[in-house]
Description:
Layout: E1 5-9, H1 13-26, E2 31-35, H2 38-47, E3 51-56, H3 67-75, E4 81-85, H4 90-98, E5 103-106, H5 111-122, H6 137-146, H7 151-161, H8 166-173, H9 177-190, H10 196-204
Parallel strand pairs: 1-2, 1-3, 3-4, 4-5
Pfam families: GerE (PF00196), Response_reg (PF00072)
Domain HTH luxR-type: 142-207
Organism: Comamonas terrigena
Amino acid sequence: xxxxxxxxxxxxxxxxxxxxxxxxxxxPQYAIVEAASAATLGAAxxxxxxxxxxxxxxxxxxxxxxSVLLHVRGEYPEIPVVIISSNDHPRVIRRAQQFGAAGFIPxxxxxxxMGAALDAVLAGDNWFPPMVAERSEADAALAARLAQLxxxxxxxxxxxxxxxxxxxxxxxxxxxxxxxxxxxxxILKKLECYSRTQxxxxxxxxENDQDM
Length: 212
């Protein structure tokens, strides 16, 4: 039986190594898997069903703001996700919380505090630094609408946001073109969007004005 595993997803090798050092010191009973992009994160989650927690940088290649967080939460709702980011603006932290993260650890956090935060999340609690940003009803409504999408529909939505046509999406995701059409219709209905462009703008709203 595979050992319980933690997945560290960050595109900076030195920071990834530093986080893994903290994990090995604090949580030696866990195996560790790495990912350096949104694509390798998805592949790692498929290859390692024993993953019990994901530590996620929001600014990896292939990520679009909070899209990776939403995608992981939609496809693997049983796995808690802790955001690790250099952008600890209160609104970023609040959005991470509203979009389903179980925790948020600024990259400037001392190792002991990081370890305590991960202990809390693995015990079933949440861990966030103090915030002053107010809850956003718009973000709450957006999260609720996106939560209606199936994992496949979310993948199609991200392709829509990249401006791909149905035929291109079908090739990208290995689907029949008619299946893509059905997904697009369902996506627009669930998101209350009147056009593909409007859906793309909605995905754009998942990004932050500041680097994450």
